[in-house]
Amino acid sequence: MASSEATVFIVDDDEAVRDSLGLLLRSVGYRARCYASAKDFLKAFDPRDYGCLVLDIRMPGMTGLELQKHLAEIGCNIPIVFITGHGDIPMAVEAVRRGAVDFLQKPFQDQELVDRINYAVQQASEQREGELERLQILDRIESLTAREKQVMGQVVLGKANKVIAGDLGVSQRTVEIHRARVMEKMQANSLAHLVRMVLVSESQ
Amino acid sequence: MNTRAPKPGQGGRTEQRHAESKLTALLNATPDAVVLIDGNGIIQSFNPGAEHIFGYSADEIVGQNIALLMPIPFRANHDDYINRYRRTGEARFMLAPREVEACRKDGSVFPAEVSVGRVEGRGLPSFIGIIRDLSQRVAAEVRLNRVEANLLTAQALAHVGSFEGGWPDSGTYFWSDEFYRITGLDPDQPPLGPAEFVRRFAHPEDLERVEARLAEDIKKTSGGGELEYRIIRPDGTVRHIQTIYQIESHGPDGARRIQGTILDQTFRRHAEEALRRERDRAQRYLDLVNVMIIAVDRSGRITLVNRKTCELFGYPEHELLGKDFFAACQPPGFAGRSRILFEEALAGQESGFSLVEGPVLTKYGHGRRVFWRNQFLRDERGRINGVLSAGEDVTEQRETESQLRQAEEELRLIFRRAPVGMATLSAAQEIDGHYLSVNQALCNMLGYSEGELLVRSVRDVTPPEDIAVTLRHFHLLLSGADTVKYEKRFIHKNGSIVHALVHLSVIADHAGKPLLIISQILDRTDVVLAEREARKQREKLAHVARLGTLGEMAAGIAHELNQPLAAISNYTQACQRLMAAGNMDAEELGQVLGRVTAQARRAGDVIHRLRAFVRRHTPDRRNRDAGELIQEILPLVEMDCRSHEVDLQLQFQPDLPKVQVDGIQLQQVLLNLTRNAVEAMNACAPGSRSLVIRTEALNEDEVELTVTDTGPGVAESMLEQLFEPFFTTKPEGMGLGLSLSRSIIEAHGGTLRYDSRPGGGSIFRIRLPTAPQEE
To answer: What is the pLDDT of residue B96?
Structure first.
């Protein structure tokens, strides 16, 4: 069973489809919120909300694909499961290429949907954990002095202490002391750990 | 000539014989008829006079009854007279001569004087009759009477007075009574000498002339003269007198005397003047009358013409007078026959002479045609001495008549030979519909002979259900419509139906009262059957095209069906899960099942609508609201728009007048147009795809439905072919949609056309006539 914290947002212009989807998702334990159009959804949605989006690919006004594009633009990466009609496969493929979790063709088996929702929520949850780690790392980076940040920048590039000392115009000893402070403040077990943290901090 | 004397008595004496011979001589010499009859009326003797008067010979008449000599009406009674006389002595003819009528052998009756005497003898008495022929005497008397009457008349009419006396004026004079009467002078006035009379009574205008004459006569010693002059009578009236006089010398002294008559010529003068005036007036009349007057004598020479005659023939009057009419005025080929006719008429052998029509020849050689009324002219003794003719130039009239006849003949031929059926019917108040005439084409059309049709009425060859419409158009025509055109059916003799277009017109008299109905009947059976066949084919094609349209919409239809199916699937699976987890009570389940049912119905509706649209149907035109018809297919349009991300807008005019259409066919056209529009807009970005369906009443008579899209429109180069069959820009299209749509709309009396939309796109306009008001 998926985490009950997650919310499934359903956007579909067909009321019966929307309503039945809602019922189906509630039956498997998700909290479901239904919207008749992309516009209604955007009005109600908070980017910090946790969950996934079930989106009809073909809608009057803003279509599913347009909504996907819009969310990416505002930096919201909520996982999306597309629901398509017959003959919309090329559009669905395009959607997945742009980062959608998957698509389902109507009508579908409930388990298929539940599997994809679970996967999406899982992804959301992972996204949320990754985000927390990044924030910790950023906090740690914030605790470094300017010179320490300078030294860390050189260290993660794989430079030897002697080279760093030459580049910065300081003694090798001074570099060693800064490097030890960085490893300590960043709570890094190894150089590889430090490199991964710096990469995470630089993502997005 | 022998005469049978009465039979002498037996043993006659000499004296008696002598008397008898004297009697016989007398009998033979007298011009009178002497007839002896016996007591029974049988003729015993008949003298030469009797033979001459009656024409019988003595031999044949002796022994016959005397009654034979009487006119038939008196014969039977004669025996009775004789019997009565013998019995009673009553006599009618005895002794005194009487005038009676007698009868000759040849049967002619003549006036006669009869004296009858009785001859005594032994036995029965016999009678002797003396009969004198009065016919010549009667005729003479008539002549005498006439002469006397003429004399009396002459005496009364001839106002002749006389005078006598010395010459020149001298001594006493004598004037007769008539002289006084003519001159109007008092009888107490003593007679005057001629010179004095003239001086006193002659008309001043004549005085000089008369006195000059008298002066001449004064020198004469003898001789006569004649003078005419006017006198003024004492009462002031004027008299024309003619005087004839004689001067003679008497005795040795040479004294001269004058003796003369005067004759009152006033009335003759007046009569002459009146006659002249009358003649002038007659001539003027002759000249004025609008007919030619021409008179010819027995030889055919022209003796009189009027101005009109001169005008026609081109001659002045003097050139015509005296000319031979036949030679001068008739064409050579005709003159001979004409003269023979003339001569036969003069001889009384030609009865058809009074009205004659023939050619004439003018001075300039032009031929004209003249209708003559001829009348014989007779002299005072009643003999024909010429012919008077009144002629009328009928050249133009005959030409017109001939043209008319020709035109009539041509019309008759046109009527007979016209390839369309034609008939005439009486326009009398109550139309009985009987044909007055029919032409061959109509006979062929209906399979009857002319004779068979003429004894039938329109009703007999019209199907019962078309009789009302037929009569209605007849009445429409007679109530003032110039012409009436309508379609109706006829029944062929073989029972088949003939479809016809009938065109009626009416011929009225000058007062506008309809006389005749002319009916022209065009056989449209082939056309009607062909149209019917074409409609059937179009129907089939339309059906195929509808299937094709739906085929093109398969994606949309699948989507439309998928929606309810997906919903149903979701609902039922949700229920299964909730039930399995024990999280659903019966009430909630009931609610969800209700939604499932609704979605199942929704899917069913889509199928139903598709079937209704695709199904073959018999055309059924009704008065429909175009907006409602669009609403019925709206789900199909909407699904098409949805599946192609097209924005659909409806602009319906409320209270749109109805149109008389086959609903499915109009929906097919609309769906075809929206389908094309949706298809066309595939080339554009999804956000700019807009389809507008609009209804509008243009006026009382026309409704317009437009389908507008924002696609690329139709290229200029393709506009001409746009509505051609098999023209298409779609790879999988048949190219029948627009051509079929147009033919459907046109079959409804409407139009379908294309306009390009300002700013890009297409506008297809359907215009339909509004339905007639429903009763």
So the answer is: 65
Query: Shortest Cα distance from A56 to chain B (angstroms)?
Result: 11
Q: Domain segments of chain A: what residues? A: 7-130, 143-202
Phi, psi angle pair for A63, to nearest 5°: -85, 175
Chain B residues near residue A65 by CB distance under 8 angstroms:
none
Answer positive or negative: Cα dihedral of A166, A167, A169, A174: negative
Q: Report the range of poorest mean pLDDT among A17-26, B169-178, B229-238, B693-702.
A: B169-178
**Which residue on chain B is closest to A26 by alpha carbon?**
B574
β-strand pairing of B126-133 with B33-37: antiparallel
**Domain at A7-130: CATH code:** 3.40.50.2300
Identify whether the C-beta of residue B567 lies closer than 8 Å to the C-beta of residue A16: yes
Q: Could you give the angle at which helices B194-201 and B204-218 cross, rounded to 10 degrees?
A: 160
Query: Encoding tokens for residue B542?
Result: 């339309």
User: Mutate which of B557, B559, B568, B570 to disrupt the A interface (most A C-beta within 10 Å)?
Assistant: B570
Nearest to B259 by CA among B246, B273, B276, B272: B246
ipTM of the complex: 0.73
Q: Domain boundaries in chain B?
A: 14-138, 158-270, 289-399, 418-523, 535-769
Cα of B703 vs its chain's centroid, Å? 56
CA distance A83 to A66: 14
Q: Alpha-carbon distance A85 to A17, whole Å?
A: 12
At B374, the pLDDT band (50, 70, 90 cuts) reads: confident
Tokens of B515: 């006389």
Amino acid in the structure at residue B368: R
Residue B15's pLDDT is: 67
Nearest to B182 by CA among B260, B256, B273, B247: B260
> Which CATH code for domain B289-399?
3.30.450.20
Q: What is the DSSP letter of B11?
A: T
Separation of alpha carbons A75 and B479, rounded Å: 88
pLDDT at B707 over 90: yes
Which is more confidently placed, A41 or B429?
A41
Q: What percent of chain A stands above pLDDT 70?
A: 97
| Alpha-carbon span A117 to A81, nearest angstrom | 7
Q: Report the C-alpha gap between B500 and B458 in whole angstroms.
A: 13
Architecture category of domain B535-769 in CATH = 2-Layer Sandwich (3.30)
Q: pLDDT digit string (tens) for B257-314?
A: 888 888 888 877 777 777 777 777 777 776 767 778 888 998 999 988 888 888 889 9
Q: How far apart are CA B3 and CA B29, in angstroms?
A: 11
The order of strands in the sheet holding B367-378 is B302-305, B292-297, B384-393, B367-378, B355-361
Query: What's the CATH fold of domain B158-270?
Result: Beta-Lactamase (3.30.450)
Q: Tell me phi and psi for residue B255, to 5 degrees.
A: -65, 135
* Angle of CA points B263, B264, B265, to nearest 5°: 105
Model pLDDT, residue B601:
92
User: Residue B563 and residue A109: Cβ atoms within 8 Å?
Assistant: no
SS3 for A16-75 is: HHHHHHHHHHHHCCCEEEEECCHHHHHHHCCCCCCEEEEEECCCCCCCHHHHHHHHHHCC
Per the document, the length of chain A is: 204
Contact B571, B595 (CB under 8 A): yes
pTM assigned to the model: 0.43
Across residues B65-90, what is the average pLDDT? 78
Residues on A contacting B at a C-beta cutoff of 8 Å: 14, 16-17, 19-21, 23-24, 26-28, 58, 60, 63, 83, 85-87, 106-110
CB B368 within 8 A of CB B309: no
CATH superfamily of B14-138: PAS domain (3.30.450.20)
**How is residue A135 written in tokens?**
């924030």
- Report residue A59 as tokens: 């809608």
Region A143-202: CATH code? 1.10.10.10
